[in-house]
Write a structure and sequence with these properties.
- It is elongated, with a radius of gyration of 16 Å.
- It has one domain: Thiol Ester Dehydrase, Chain A (Roll).
- It has four helices and five strands, in the order E-H-H-E-E-E-E-H-H.
- The chain has helices at residues 25-40, 45-52, 127-133, 135-138, and strands at residues 4-9, 54-65, 74-84, 88-97, 103-116.
- A five-stranded antiparallel beta sheet has the order 1-3-4-5-2.
- InterPro entries: 4-hydroxybenzoyl-CoA_TE (IPR050563), HB-CoA_thioesterase_AS (IPR008272), HotDog_dom_sf (IPR029069), Tol-Pal_acyl-CoA_thioesterase (IPR014166), YbgC/YbaW (IPR006684).
- One of its GO terms (molecular function) is fatty acyl-CoA hydrolase activity.
- This is 4-hydroxybenzoyl-CoA thioesterase.
- Keywords: Hydrolase.
Length: 141
């Protein structure tokens, strides 16, 4: 399975008093990485909203913490498509401590639902976006 990778640095605002990344910040990092993965796959969420009136929302997320990231660490977040249905995406995002030799810090499994922005009811993912998102699985990004 191919993936999208992006790097971010841990800043003071991301940490608790002990200099360790606050647990909820991983969700923010994952959100940024997903947005960039979709953009790089030519599946801009802004275009999805503007052209089709659709949005992706997080339906559920499971986070497994393995090793802490600390102030000034550089992390690499790898995003991969695990599964897709007509209305949902399942992604796996692995956060690694790039500064610390690539040790896995956190794994986040996230399920996104495609909804109509008007009534927030489930909607089918348009074919162009389905094809674009498959790039995260097929090694094209």
């Amino acid at each position: 399975m191919a993936t999208h990778k992006i790097r971010f640095r841990v800043y003071y605002e991301d940490t608790d008093a002990g200099g360790i990344v606050y647990h909820a910040r991983y969700l923010g990092f994952a959100e940024r990485a997903r947005s960039e993965a979709m953009r790089d796959a030519d599946a801009s969420v802004t275009e999805l909203l503007n052209d089709f009136g659709l949005v992706f929302v997080v339906r559920q997320a499971a986070i497994r913490y393995r090793s802490p990231l600390r102030l000034d660490d550089e992390m690499e977040i790898e995003t991969a498509l695990d599964a897709m249905t007509p209305t949902r995406l399942k992604l796996c995002q692995t956060v690694r401590n790039y500064s610390g030799g690539g040790e896995t810090a956190t794994v986040i499994d996230v399920e996104l639902a495609c909804l109509s922005a008007v009534d927030m009811k489930p909607a089918k993912i348009p074919p162009r976006w389905r094809d674009a998102v498959r790039k995260l699985e097929a090694g094209e990004v």
